[in-house]
């Protein structure tokens, strides 16, 4: 299983690097093309939309989108709309962008109206933007440069076919093997039959006829006491082995992967976007539990990220096969909005919330005590040591068996972290002298005492 | 011949039945469930005995109560409050600056760097991947952040940025991050 996973990973990485290469190649062409456009634009005396896009993404995009309300209003064609609806010119925009708070204070009617309309969220002043910069941004909002859609589309299709062929070729190989195997079996039968017929034709008496006179094999077996004894021993050992194995897995939930109310992908969050585990599971640092993050933590980012746009290279063939399309993930974000009561249209909370009934995966029996902060903050153990490669898990599952033997084993093998921990200094010096070792394991520090976990 | 086939399939089926007992969508059997399962409520446990308004053990703090060690924050979540907070110095011991900055860096890398970038220039992973845009650099002249305004922003959030008071443990951690942010700003303006 693990090997197969790795192989997939390898092909993915290969595909990805190929994609990156191809997109960068396309991007260069694209950049060259847009440069020409930019030159034309600046020649005509207006703002430069390409530079404007850069400035927009740097300065405005935190609160504004082109075609969508965010913290602030949508900005597509803002200049023409303002001129037509409110009779405000570019000068008004210059003043507003450079010092919106001052304009509100001076009693400008439209400034106050928009301030009230957007929950009194003050727009940051941008005195550093020159008039030319603002012209550029306005040019971008009026006519955003065409997205390099064609380039990415071709890259996607290339990547898709490449990965697809990789998957298919595996299946073809397997199919071919099965076919060859089947043919071999058939050939064996045929050869056997022809040999028999040849033998019969030549008048050779087949052994089968002779065998009939002999004692049946099971009778011979039953008469041989030694064989019966050995067989009985093997049978008993074998069944004991299976019975033991079965009994040992009772109460062990390794591999448990329940269906969650919201399809949260750790692979996208922790893997692709490299968000720290402790960003969401912040209580793992300071408390016994690594809590399920409350929804306000989700909204830290998902206030801005309202749809899933996927990796730049588009969904992989594997994701598509599982139905994990961009629309699917966007739907899951909408589920979050519903639970937390976020009104996307008006960008405010409705106050109508409902708890998300997450299904707990890791659950120690009641008689065992475990403290996350002791392991995460004091010992400095990586989350992945116990929870496995979470950053690769599309669906979260229990990686470790979480049995006592597993705990004890780690306590025996892991050296305790003493750096920067005054609490351990004295006892560490004392115990390392007692045991005559440089590095103490958790077991030597009392990590095997019953009362540490059972009381 | 057919008999042996029957026996082999029987054994295989037997093995299969025992190994396939585990369904990954539901938890496994337990030996003595009353030793495994807590008598008291477990964290986040769903309880439908009518005692809990939302049907879960997890509750909001009772109204008009404060948590242990809570200190009120004197500035309001308004622009005026922010301007007043701008002048507030950090209450942390300046002799412990290095420890505080080290701790601040650790926390900053977990909670802030994903958007603001490790150097505070607004180039975090999410920005580079164009998931969240428009994250300002700390040395932005117009914003002119101070340790007090940074604290205020983390405490209440600002526009698109949410409040981080819940993810950071206490006031001390918030101040440690704020001090580290000022350190980053200094490095950026250099």
Provide an overview of this structure.
Chain A: InterPro entries: Cyt_c-like_dom, Cyt_c-like_dom_sf, Cyt_c_III_dom, Multihaem_cyt_sf. Chain A: GO terms for molecular function: electron transfer activity; heme binding; metal ion binding. Chain A: This is C-type cytochrome. The complex is a heterodimer of chains A (455) and B (190). Chain A is mainly alpha-helical and 455 residues long. Chain A has five domains: 37-148, Cytochrome Bc1 Complex, Chain D, domain 2; 170-214; 217-250; 266-401, no CATH class; 403-455, no CATH class. Chain A has 23 helices and two strands. Chain A has helices spanning 2-43, 49-60, 78-85, 90-98, 100-105, 109-117, 131-142, 149-201, 207-211, 217-223, 225-248, 266-272, 277-280, 283-286, 295-302, 317-321, 326-340, 372-378, 383-387, 404-413, 422-435, 443-447, 450-453; strands at residues 342-343, 348-349. Chain A has a two-stranded antiparallel sheet. In chain A, a hairpin with a 4-residue loop joins strand 1 and strand 2 (348-349). The two termini of chain A are 39 Å apart. Chain B is mainly alpha-helical. Chain B has eight helices and no strands. Chain B is elongated. The model of chain B has no long low-confidence stretch (mean pLDDT 81).
Observed structural traits:
heterodimer, A: 455 residues, Cytochrome Bc1 Complex, Chain D, domain 2, 5 domains, 2 strands, B: 190 residues, mainly alpha, elongated
In short:
Chain A: Residues 47-145 form the Cytochrome c domain. The complex is a heterodimer of chains A (455) and B (190). Chain A is mostly helical.
Portion in beta strands of chain A: under 5%
Proportion of residues in extended strands of chain B? under 5%
Gross morphology of chain B is elongated
Task: State the CATH topology of the domain at 79-189 in chain B.
Answer: Cytochrome Bc1 Complex, Chain D, domain 2
Which range best describes the helical content of chain A: under 10%, 10-25%, 25-40%, 40-55%, 55-70% or over 70%?
Answer: 55-70%
Following the backbone from N to C, one meets helices and strands of chain B in this order, namely HHHHHHHH
Helix/strand order of chain A, N-terminal first: HHHHHHHHHHHHHHHHHEEHHHHHH
Instruction: Characterize the main sheet of chain A.
Output: 2 strands, antiparallel
Neighbour order of strands in the largest sheet of chain A: 1-2
Mean pLDDT of chain A: 78
What is the terminal-to-terminal distance of chain B?
88 Å
Mean pLDDT rating of chain B: 81
* Rg of chain B, Cα atoms, Å: 27 Å
Protein name (chain A): C-type cytochrome
Domain Cytochrome c (chain A): 47-145
GO molecular function (chain A): electron transfer activity; heme binding; metal ion binding
Signal peptide (chain A): 1-27
């Amino acid at each position: 299983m693990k090997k197969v996973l790795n192989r997939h990973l390898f092909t993915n990485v290969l595909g990805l690097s190929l994609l990156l290469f191809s997109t960068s190649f396309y991007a260069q062409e694209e950049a060259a093309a847009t440069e020409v456009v930019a030159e034309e634009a600046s020649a005509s005396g207006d703002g430069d939309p390409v530079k404007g896009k850069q400035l927009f993404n740097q300065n405005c995009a935190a609160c504004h989108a082109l075609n969508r309300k965010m913290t602030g209003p949508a900005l597509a064609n803002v200049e023409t709309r303002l001129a037509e609806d409110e009779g405000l010119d570019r000068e008004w925009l210059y003043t507003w962008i450079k010092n919106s708070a001052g304009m509100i204070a001076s009693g400008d009617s439209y400034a106050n109206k928009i301030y009230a309309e957007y929950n009194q969220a003050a727009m940051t002043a941008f005195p550093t933007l020159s008039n030319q910069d603002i012209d550029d941004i306005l040019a971008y909002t009026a006519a955003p440069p065409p997205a390099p859609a064609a380039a990415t589309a071709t890259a996607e299709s290339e990547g898709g076919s490449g990965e697809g062929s990789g998957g298919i070729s595996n299946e073809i190989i397997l199919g071919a093997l099965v076919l060859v195997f089947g043919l071999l079996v058939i050939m064996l039968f045929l050869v056997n039959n022809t040999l028999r017929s040849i033998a019969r034709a030549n008048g050779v008496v087949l052994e089968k006829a002779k065998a009939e006179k002999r004692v049946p094999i099971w009778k011979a077996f039953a008469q041989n006491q030694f064989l019966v004894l050995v067989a009985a021993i093997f049978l008993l050992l074998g069944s004991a082995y299976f019975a033991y194995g079965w009994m040992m897995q009772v109460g062990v939930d390794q591999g448990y992967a329940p269906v969650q109310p919201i399809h949260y992908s750790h692979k996208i969050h922790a893997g692709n976007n490299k968000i720290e585990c402790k960003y969401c599971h912040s209580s793992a640092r300071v408390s016994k539990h690594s809590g399920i993050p409350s929804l306000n933590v989700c909204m830290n980012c998902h206030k801005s990220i309202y749809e899933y746009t996927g990796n730049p290279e588009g969904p992989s063939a594997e994701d598509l096969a599982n139905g994990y399309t961009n629309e699917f993930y966007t739907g899951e974000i909408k589920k979050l909005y519903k639970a937390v009561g976020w009104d996307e249209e008006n960008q405010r909370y409705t106050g109508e919330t409902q708890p998300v009934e997450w299904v707990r995966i890791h659950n120690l029996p009641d008689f065992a005590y475990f403290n996350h902060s002791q392991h995460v903050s004091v010992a400095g153990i990586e989350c992945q040591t116990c929870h496995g490669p979470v950053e690769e898990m599309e669906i979260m599952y229990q990686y470790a068996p979480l049995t006592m033997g597993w705990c004890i084993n780690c306590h025996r093998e892991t050296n305790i972290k003493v750096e920067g921990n005054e609490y351990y200094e004295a006892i560490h010096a004392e115990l390392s002298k007692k045991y005559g070792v440089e590095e103490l394991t958790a077991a030597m520090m009392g990590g095997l005492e019953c009362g540490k976990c059972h009381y | 011949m057919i008999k042996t086939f029957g026996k082999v399939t029987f054994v295989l089926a037997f093995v299969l039945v025992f190994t396939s007992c585990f369904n990954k969508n539901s938890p496994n059997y337990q030996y003595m469930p009353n030793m495994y399962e807590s008598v008291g409520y477990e964290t986040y446990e769903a309880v439908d005995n009518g005692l809990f308004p939302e049907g879960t053990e997890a509750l909001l703090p009772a109204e008009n109560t404060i948590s242990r060690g809570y200190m009120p924050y004197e500035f309001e979540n308004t622009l005026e409050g922010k301007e007043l907070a701008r002048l507030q110095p950090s209450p942390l011991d300046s002799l412990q600056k290095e420890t505080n900055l080290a701790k601040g860096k650790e926390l900053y890398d977990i909670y802030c760097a994903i958007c603001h970038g490790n150097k505070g220039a607004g180039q975090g992973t999410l920005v580079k991947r164009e998931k969240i845009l428009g994250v300002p650099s700390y040395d932005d002249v117009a914003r002119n952040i101070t340790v007090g305004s940074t604290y205020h922003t983390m405490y209440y959030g600002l526009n698109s940025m949410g409040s981080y008071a819940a993810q950071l443990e206490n006031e001390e951690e918030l101040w440690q991050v704020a001090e580290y942010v000022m350190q980053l700003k200094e490095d950026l303006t250099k």
